[in-house]
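Task 17 of the worksheet. Students: predict the tertiary structure of the chain below and write it out as structure tokens. Keep your answer in the requested format; marks are given for formatting as well as content.
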Amino acid sequence: MQDNLYNLAFERSILSSIVFEPSQFDELSSQLKKDDFYLPAHQDIFGVMTLLFQKDQPIDEEFIKKELIKIKKFDENVMLEILSANPISNTKAYVEEIRDKSLKRHLLTLTTEIKRVTVEEELSSQEVIDIVEKKLYEITQNNQTSDFKDSPKMTFDTMTYIKEMKARGNTVLVGVDTGFHELNKMTTGFGKGDLVIVAARPAMGKTSFILNTVNTLIMQGKGVAFFSLEMPAEQLMLRLLSIQTAIPLQKLRVGDMSNDQWGSLNGAIDKMNSAKLYVDDHGSININQLRSKLRKLKNQHPEIEIAVIDYLQIMSGVGNQDRHLQVSEISRGLKMLARELNMPIVALSQLNRGLESRNDKRPMLSDIRESGSIEQDADIILFVYRDDVYLYKEEKEREKEAKAKGHEFVSTYVEREEEDAEIIIGKQRNGPTGHVKLIFQKKLTKFIDSHNHIKSIETVYENVDTRSAHISISNDTISMPPL
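Model answer:
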């Protein structure tokens, strides 16, 4: 039984190999952790080796002994056994054996934990399942960590992060690409472990907005998990294809396309066949089910870099709690899951209709439904706002009133295919708040950067005689002569 759980000879050989060839430690430390070793003394020695590596000091017998004495963990007999062991040049098989036995020990510990939470604690079966799934995910992902990180570990990780940022040069993007240049500049992207809330009133385009982000990521070959609680997967695919091909969404829906458009569609379909997009379109899901599904998916497809939930208020609660408490549990659960899986989770959210009674209908944090817990748990809160939605609604109300009074109605509203849009950063835990201007292309349900829009218009004029063509840009308006 014990031989199946550890191999001290293999552990000694690995530690001996590091002492006699310290240059191996960099590679081995990425494959092994301190608690992969069974013998506590071996754990202490590997931990001291890690500390010496972080401090850029020699990993040799004298320095190891010095650090062990400092923490009162030096065992001369153990050290002699390691120095007497034969160092090995090909460590791969030894590492795999040590890790395999470590995994078995963790699984054995998990069986004890399952018995404890099942028998001794007053938990529901669903809560027990969630605890077990989380522990199992941590074990399979080698995420076993101590309760606390000490200062050397934190400083080393921080310096590693700073050096990585320096190596990137002047790029503004640190996290996951949002798909929009100006938004990337203000947020540096969606960070690992972040809970991002994208909120708006109906018809503002919050789903369209996040699908632009999704499209950017899958075109970069990155993985996306999408929980669509409101619309079937086929409708999401239609929107993505419209974004990619610039074919109006309505034409795609009815198949009314020219030969060139059919060609573009076939090309986009070929790209999407290799996309790493995974959609769950079951209409109802609670936080426990979502956790379980996303853990399994992430385990099977580590390339997934972001998860999207459309939308938060449709998620089912657990038990018979008040809805406010259910939403609190959902938002807190999503934040903890983002940290556990070390990737951003984007949850779409509805806004209260109360904002529509204000003169300025731009959303605020207090407009989020059940906003208390969501506002607290979120790292970033983005609001999608298009003024034309309200202008159109007001026009329809005036028309209705005029007809009711028997008056002639003269429309003053001009419907545009491209509308001004704003992404309002209402909260950002690690950055500034503010506004980002975008353009919304209605027929494609597509958002684009406003500066890209200006460039695309300028391209039309690049062959026009500049002596007679004058383009002026001010206050986001463009004045140009007719072609």
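Marker's comment: The chain has two domains: 2-153, 171-452. The two ends are 85 Å apart (CA to CA).
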